Amino acid sequence: MNNLVFLKLGGSLITDKDKPHTVRQDVLERIAQEITSALISNPQLRLMIGHGSGSFGHIPAQKYQTRQRVTTPQEWLGFIEVWREAISLNFLVMKALHKAGIPAISFSPCAQILAVDGKIHSWDTVQIRSALIHGLVPVVYGDVIFDSIRGGTIFSTEEQFEFLAAEFEPEKILLSGIEPGVWKDYPERTEIIPSITPSTISNLDKNLNGSESPDVTGGMKSKVHAMINLVEKGFCREVIIFSGLEPGLVSAVISGQKAGTRLCRNS
Question: Would you call 185 exposed, middle or buried from its count of C-beta atoms within 10 A (0-12, 13-18, 19+)?
């Protein structure tokens, strides 16, 4: 689809990942307004939004190790707890988007995706495509998934974006979190890497550490590798990793402004 952009609102951005069930309401509402501004300034823009689970889903997911498998009765109760937390946060995100006037509609990953040993086996995306065609903004989010081998597992927004990018081929994918980009010297945080390409990523692996807060889906390293793979395959032109904490930057990056770290074929 032409003019299609995927935007992720990181769990660490819209929640306090170190405090259970804590939304950064001011940040969430500000970003919703920025998305509205971007849509108004570019009527041809098609947008898909994804968001992480932050301090809602990651904490019970870590407690029950839901990502690895769901087999025992206790683990299935944990599966439900993660699902409940994920959908609770999604409700709050949707409320903020609707308050800002965004025609957003949520698609539950748990109800749509079937997996085999941690990989998407089937996902009928015809409803998402229809939403985009009619000018709506589909919203997906990190969620529990039924899995024929593991029983259950968890899929991050980036993993869903991987599948959806192959289906829809967005122009770009924007990952907004609390970091201003990918750090060259994490955790010291003194220098941002301006660009990463398939040919340079192997030299950077030692710097791509995980998250300080609970993140059962792997943190920065897994995100960068997944996204550079999409760029290398030609499913999107570029991926931008940037901070959504800076007022106005979400709107600006959607509209094409450079920021953070750019993942692309050639630097």
Answer: exposed
